[in-house]
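User: Can you predict the 3D structure for this chain?
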Amino acid sequence: MPVFNADDAVHRLYRGCAVEPVEAAFPGVAVNGAIDRQKLSKALAGKAENFKRLEAIVHPLVREERQAFLERARADGALIAVLDVPLLYETGGERDVDYVVVVTCDPAIQRERVLSRPDMTVEKTRNGPETTTPRWRKTRAGRLYCRHRRWHGRGARGG
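Assistant: Here is the predicted structure, written as structure tokens:
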């Protein structure tokens, strides 16, 4: 089953077609033809308007990659394709799919995972974009969700 990972797409874009527009919006974040994520993080520095500017550049490019992935999956005869998109609801991507499965965990576990990333700090978690859809809204909007290894929702088994 083909799987599209939006985070992987962003990493590719930061080495490809997003470099020029991101560098133009945030001068000095490109190094050796790629976006330096640490420099970009400093440029964003908790400023909501900078996050919005970056999202206006990156989200349409990710959407294009996602669409190309789905077209390839269809052409290859795939009956099902998976889109792993952390910001699906924030970008309106739920309108482009037939079924949404939300996988979530306790906030403490999520925080631990986020803070285990290289160069991540508590300060950065506080200064991120405030446009993230709350967990309760995502699980309510999804047709099926998994929490604590138990399935919940319409048609769920084991929940």
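The two ends are 25 Å apart (CA to CA). The longest helix spans residues 48-75.
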